[in-house]
Amino acid sequence: MKTLIAPSILSVDFNNLQQSIDIVNRSEADWLHLDVMDGVFVPNLSFGFPVIDSVAKTTQKPMDAHLMVIEPDKYIDRLRKLGVSRVTVHYEACPHLHRTVQAIKKAGMKAGVSLNPHTPVALLEEIINDLDLVLIMSVNPGYGGQSFIENSCPKIEKLRQLIDTKKASALIQVDGGVNFETGRRLIDSGANVLVAGSFVFSAKDPIDTINKLKKL
Ligand code: DX5
Ligand code: ZN
């Protein structure tokens, strides 16, 4: 399949948020990645419902919410009402992951599970067939602009094997430190969806950068 690109607005100038949404709209991006942080699961705060509500009004791309929060179940209903298409929760934040995944799907959205860099893919063995997406963190979640963790490539190969063995259909998404060079290697390892934040929005021509990532 063709690689999907999901630009993250985490590192944009929120004073000019509309400008960044326009960039993504005018590009060949597939999804718009929204990084929600609660200052508890990760050591940083980002944004929540008021910002997502604003974004929803003008984005032409499906919204892909990455919840770096504890107790994500509390937010599923409101995310659906705001028109979010996909919700990804963290394995490490969900003691009742099966219940959380079913709740997302019951609300009519696609369900993803994210793994921190130290969390083995084998832990998904019993739930992989329920998932629409697995998000491999290639940095420790919490901040944009960090450098890529090399172990992410072999980890994606292991996940690809698990998905094939189980005849599952989950997409493999990767998030953190994505650029042309790491992006190419991630695709070779089996990734389907690349999230990119600072690489896109610090580029001279963000639209061209998104379109080039798509062609890797
Ligand atoms: C990190 C976020 C990422 C972040 C990626 O916690 O989940 O989506 O925006 O940023 P870059 O692409 O700058 O590593
Ligand atoms: Zn993210």
TrEMBL record:
<feature type="binding site">
    <location>
        <position position="8"/>
    </location>
    <ligand>
        <name>substrate</name>
    </ligand>
</feature>
<keyword id="KW-0413">Isomerase</keyword>
<dbReference type="Pfam" id="PF00834">
    <property type="entry name" value="Ribul_P_3_epim"/>
</dbReference>
<feature type="binding site">
    <location>
        <position position="33"/>
    </location>
    <ligand>
        <name>a divalent metal cation</name>
    </ligand>
</feature>
<keyword id="KW-0119">Carbohydrate metabolism</keyword>
<keyword id="KW-0464">Manganese</keyword>
<feature type="active site" description="Proton acceptor">
    <location>
        <position position="35"/>
    </location>
</feature>
<dbReference type="InterPro" id="IPR000056">
    <property type="entry name" value="Ribul_P_3_epim-like"/>
</dbReference>
<dbReference type="InterPro" id="IPR013785">
    <property type="entry name" value="Aldolase_TIM"/>
</dbReference>
<feature type="active site" description="Proton donor">
    <location>
        <position position="175"/>
    </location>
</feature>
<feature type="binding site">
    <location>
        <begin position="142"/>
        <end position="145"/>
    </location>
    <ligand>
        <name>substrate</name>
    </ligand>
</feature>
<feature type="binding site">
    <location>
        <position position="175"/>
    </location>
    <ligand>
        <name>a divalent metal cation</name>
    </ligand>
</feature>
<comment type="pathway">
    <text>Carbohydrate degradation.</text>
</comment>
<feature type="binding site">
    <location>
        <position position="66"/>
    </location>
    <ligand>
        <name>a divalent metal cation</name>
    </ligand>
</feature>
<comment type="similarity">
    <text>Belongs to the ribulose-phosphate 3-epimerase family.</text>
</comment>
<dbReference type="GO" id="GO:0004750">
    <property type="term" value="F:D-ribulose-phosphate 3-epimerase activity"/>
</dbReference>
<feature type="binding site">
    <location>
        <position position="177"/>
    </location>
    <ligand>
        <name>substrate</name>
    </ligand>
</feature>
<dbReference type="GO" id="GO:0006098">
    <property type="term" value="P:pentose-phosphate shunt"/>
</dbReference>
<keyword id="KW-0862">Zinc</keyword>
<comment type="function">
    <text>Catalyzes the reversible epimerization of D-ribulose 5-phosphate to D-xylulose 5-phosphate.</text>
</comment>
<feature type="binding site">
    <location>
        <begin position="197"/>
        <end position="198"/>
    </location>
    <ligand>
        <name>substrate</name>
    </ligand>
</feature>
<keyword id="KW-0170">Cobalt</keyword>
<protein>
    <recommendedName>
        <fullName>Ribulose-phosphate 3-epimerase</fullName>
        <ecNumber>5.1.3.1</ecNumber>
    </recommendedName>
</protein>
<feature type="binding site">
    <location>
        <position position="35"/>
    </location>
    <ligand>
        <name>a divalent metal cation</name>
    </ligand>
</feature>
<keyword id="KW-0479">Metal-binding</keyword>
<dbReference type="GO" id="GO:0046872">
    <property type="term" value="F:metal ion binding"/>
</dbReference>
<dbReference type="InterPro" id="IPR011060">
    <property type="entry name" value="RibuloseP-bd_barrel"/>
</dbReference>
<feature type="binding site">
    <location>
        <begin position="175"/>
        <end position="177"/>
    </location>
    <ligand>
        <name>substrate</name>
    </ligand>
</feature>
<feature type="binding site">
    <location>
        <position position="66"/>
    </location>
    <ligand>
        <name>substrate</name>
    </ligand>
</feature>
<dbReference type="GO" id="GO:0019323">
    <property type="term" value="P:pentose catabolic process"/>
</dbReference>
<dbReference type="InterPro" id="IPR026019">
    <property type="entry name" value="Ribul_P_3_epim"/>
</dbReference>
